[in-house]
Amino acid sequence: MKKWLLLAVSCSAVVLMAQALRIEVSQDKKNERAPRGAVRNEKGGRASRKWGIYKSFVKRFLDFVIALFAIVILLIPMILISLFVFITDPGPVFYTQKRFARNGADGRHRFFKIIKYRTMKVNTPDVPTNKLKDPGKYVTFCGRILRRTSLDELPQLFNVLKGDMALIGPRPLLPQYLPLYSKEQARRHDVRPGITGWAQVNGRNA
């Protein structure tokens, strides 16, 4: 088991390093094509290059490795939670929902399917929770516990492995909330959404 885990981490490190180097080379080519009259800030260029390496490689690598180890360590508890969810209300164990991902290179909005433990009954109407007349009656007994402890977010570790999310970052928005954000606030989509972040530390519903 340890050998397979070490092999998986090593392979992922090689892939991520290759990706980071490819990004770095493409950025260098763009810099070479800069206009002759453009003034280059050497210190700023080096700082931005280091920050680019951190964003494109170091942070992603740490997210991947930590998420992988967390899944291995929490595998048995996650299986037990899955059984608890099913026994409380037979049906799908997981719930997926369309959320905003990090913007693409062209600036366009992208989406992904966020994964959570199902906390509401199978027969719950397929509408936003705030539009239900009495949302509490649809939450299962297991769901109340998972929501109170935020354990319903654990499956998002798989979103981190896939690259849709990071461990720390702004929470991914529902598509219908985008018109409520200003252009400045919408810049949150320039980075990967996270499982937790500043807003969650300072307020659960942020």
Overall description:
- The protein is built from 6 helices and 4 strands; from the N terminus they run αααββααββα.
- The radius of gyration is 20 Å and the shape is globular.
- With 206 residues, the chain is mainly alpha-helical.
Give a topology summary.
Blueprint: H1 2-32, H2 42-73, H3 75-88, E1 94-100, E2 111-117, H4 141-149, H5 156-162, E3 166-168, E4 194-196, H6 198-202
Parallel strand pairs: 3-4
Antiparallel strand pairs: 1-2
Helix pairs in contact: 1-2, 2-5
Question: Notable features of this structure?
Answer:
6 helices; two-stranded antiparallel sheet; two-stranded parallel ribbon; 206 residues
Quick structural summary:
With 206 residues, the protein is mainly α. Helices cover 48% and strands 10% of the residues.
| Biggest β-sheet description | 2 strands, antiparallel
H/E topology pattern: HHHEEHHEEH
Overall pLDDT level? 77
Helix content bin: 40-55%
Shape: globular
Catalogue the unreliable spans. 13-44
Number of helices: 6
Radius of gyration over all CA atoms, rounded: 20 Å
Beta-strand content estimate: 5-15%
Strand order of the largest sheet: 1-2
Number of DSSP strand runs:
4
**Structural class of the secondary structure composition?**
mainly alpha
Measure the end-to-end span. Answer: 40 Å
